[in-house]
Amino acid sequence: MSVEERLSKQMKSKLGARAVYLPGTAFDLGDVLRPKGDGFQQMTKLARLGVGFDPEPFQDMSLDFVSSGTKERIFQAGAELPSSAALDLAADASVRYEFGGEFEYVLKTPVLQGAHIENLAEVLEAVQRLPKFNFKEWRIVTEVYVASEFAFVASEKKKSSFEISGKASGIVGFLTAGASLGLKSTRSGSVSILGKGGPVAMSLTKVPKP
Question: In the beta sheet, which residues pair with residue 72?
């Protein structure tokens, strides 16, 4: 099972939506996509097809995902601490993620804003009346969750690691909210996206052929 598949499984359990992979890939509510390789390609938008929709927001939330084979370790002054509560906020510190297995990940978002198409039935009926729509391949983004900022670290290799260091106050901000401003990182065999915003989850709807 790949990182994307594992992350999507946890995302569906939490939000009922699939993971956007890589997180931050620019998709929006009302986009029309088609599968391409391991991801999706934007074909058009409902607005360009002359189909309007009513977006309805979800309540804001946050995410703190650490995969089962990932160990989170906090250090300060050369010693490992049991939790961030023991940190001296005025001193330097670090947090290390050790990926014990394959396809491990960490995803943290301070603020996650979501929305869905409220009048979906009407939208699907309108799309079914379109003369040129690829009902076999195309999907509509009917739900999307966007993080104002997120931290994402993943590894497909066993025994790799990722470390973030800086002022302890910044480390606490990272651990509690995924904020990464002013922090430095070192990595070994991992992929990282820090301090970026964008979509992290979405739902796609296939339009039934009329």
Answer: 97
